[in-house]
Amino acid sequence: EPNLDPVVVSKSNVFSAHQGHCMALEFSGDGTYMASGGSDHRLIVWKPTKRGSLNKFWEAPEAHDASICAVTFIDSKDLVVSASNDQTLRLWKVSEKGKSKVPVRTLTGHDEWVRQVVVSADGALLASCSNDQTAHVWNADTGKSLGELRDHEHVIECIALSTPAMHEALVASLREYGALAADAVATAGEM
């Protein structure tokens, strides 16, 4: 059962672990963990306490070769995903504390800074967008690219996935045409 108590931030419980700007924050779906990514290339997973503070659970000091600009959890798979200016997405096992932190998988396919990553409600798909004016849809289990949306005139700054029924249509469209169905993936340039 998720802890729905508010976290009160005051000078006495402000956390600081990044050596530069904290650029991304997200809580896991059940509130058990929070991930942060920063300009210092560091990914940190935190555990909120009942007292409203945060304890560092684990960190990957050199998670990426550049700033981390987005993080998201795939709760059903015990994974956190980080997106970076180094043009990659990396998947990390959340609950493995104390082990040498290496990514479970690295996804490549963008040619510039990856601005955002989102996960489908069922945890099956990831979608990412980039300064390279593309959006990608990925199989969350295999890391395989399922397709790319191209030809935006500008940087794509944000992305969203539709409902699970639309995911089925998206995958069917990719199988049949090798291209993304525009109504299944919304990007900033089309909203």
Short descriptors:
disordered C terminus; mainly beta; single chain; 4-stranded antiparallel β-sheet; 1 helix; about 190 residues
Topology:
Blueprint: E1 22-27, E2 34-38, E3 43-48, E4 54-60, E5 68-74, E6 79-84, E7 88-93, E8 105-108, E9 114-119, E10 125-130, E11 135-139, E12 145-149, E13 159-161, H1 164-177, E14 185-187
Antiparallel strand pairs: 1-2, 2-3, 3-4, 5-6, 6-7, 7-8, 9-10, 10-11, 11-12, 13-14
How much helicity do the residues have?
under 10%
Q: How do the SSEs run, as a string of H and E?
A: EEEEEEEEEEEEEHE
SS elements, strand count: 14
- How would the global form be characterised? globular
Backbone structural class: mainly beta
**Overall pLDDT, averaged?**
82
What's the short story on this structure?
This protein has one helix and 14 strands. Strand 10 and strand 11 form a beta hairpin.
Report on the structure:
The chain has 191 residues and is mostly beta strands. 7% of the residues lie in helices and 39% in strands. The chain is built from 1 helix and 14 strands. It has a 4-stranded antiparallel sheet, with no helix packed on it. Strands 5-6-7-8 form a 4-stranded antiparallel sheet, with no helix packed on it. Mean pLDDT is 82; it is low at 179-184 and 186-191.
